[in-house]
Amino acid sequence: MLTKENLPPPATTRWVSRRKAQVVAAVKGGLLTPNEPCARYQMSSGELETWQRLFDRAGMPALRATRMQYYREHFPE
């Protein structure tokens, strides 16, 4: 079960796909508002929206840093 306590810590600097997926799931499940991850992790709303869009279209593999460009090109807005 996802809780605020087991989300990535606010000082996270290495964003692996699993951590990105946890944040996306927390927003989708109502645990966090869309603004909370932006403030907590000092990220833009655009970055969070990109994670959400890629995850919705292709799942966790799309959140891998080495594959994000591929998925952006093949799963446009």
From TrEMBL:
<dbReference type="InterPro" id="IPR036388">
    <property type="entry name" value="WH-like_DNA-bd_sf"/>
</dbReference>
<dbReference type="Pfam" id="PF06627">
    <property type="entry name" value="DUF1153"/>
</dbReference>
<protein>
    <recommendedName>
        <fullName>DUF1153 domain-containing protein</fullName>
    </recommendedName>
</protein>
<dbReference type="GO" id="GO:0043565">
    <property type="term" value="F:sequence-specific DNA binding"/>
</dbReference>
<dbReference type="InterPro" id="IPR010921">
    <property type="entry name" value="Trp_repressor/repl_initiator"/>
</dbReference>
<dbReference type="InterPro" id="IPR009534">
    <property type="entry name" value="DUF1153"/>
</dbReference>
